[in-house]
Design a protein that fits this description.
Strand content: 15-25%
Order of helices and strands: EHEHEEEEEHHHHEEEEEHH
CATH topology: Purple Acid Phosphatase, chain A, domain 2
Bound molecules: manganese (II) ion
CATH class: Alpha Beta
Number of strands: 12
Helix content: 25-40%
Length: 290
Amino acid sequence: MNMMPLDLTPDSSNAAPPSTVLRYRTLWISDVHLGTRGCKADLLLEFLRHTESDTLYLVGDVIDGWRLKRSWYWNQSHNDVVQKLLRKARKGTQVIYVPGNHDEALRDFTELHFGGVAVQMEAVHITADGRRLLVTHGDHFDGIVTYAKWLALLGDMAYSAALNMNTWFNHLRRRFGLPYWSLSAYLKHKVKNAVAFISEYERAIAEEARRRHVDGVVCGHIHHAEMRDIDGILYCNDGDWVESCTALAEHADGRLEILHWAEMREHVMAPDLPISAPEVVREAEIARTA
Ligand SMILES: [Mn+2]
């Protein structure tokens, strides 16, 4: 196991400026799971070097704190990601960290700033074209998904109580040294149910957005990038940096797009090639009609 300590000295490996830098109004990334072997830190580092934004949301599970007590894995690329994020904050990017269940400890430090990074339980982002998007990691919806429709019928109080219960349930598990219990992770092993779960999860979060009178929601947690309209609510999931290496981006005009770095990187890093891969263009089309 690699046990390199967290090193916050300035990143010297970043000396040469990247050839192409894509500019966005806003970027959302989540589920990086720094501190685990599965984290694609090298790819994320590339992405962070080749993109810039006025605002960068870290939508939870960026540092995997659950693993602090067990198999903590940390190497230079994990350091570099942390340094790059802090450097962006120093250089004027508004970095907002909305903790998830794997970095839940940060939820005790909301409304604080670390090196220019603001920690908030959730955020409401307003796009350039005036849409209001609730930004939340989304783990609260894990345990309640199967009951979401009933709870919605029972009303706000029952719904909120159920959301809080899931948080407390996992808080207790943490106190007893047990890992976070995730219905989504559990069901991903039972592939047959995974599709049904994901669509129920998306509906539950969209329902919450409706109750909160916003136009849409940006979340993560289930490691499944998506952008679609759910009965008039825009559901966006920025995916993850363990498998899919995706981010959500807002262009200067408010247009939203899912970025697939694994497909984009060869075009961005070889500037002679056209920047938009067919997949990316298709996502942009979806965004325009959503
Ligand atoms: Mn999560």
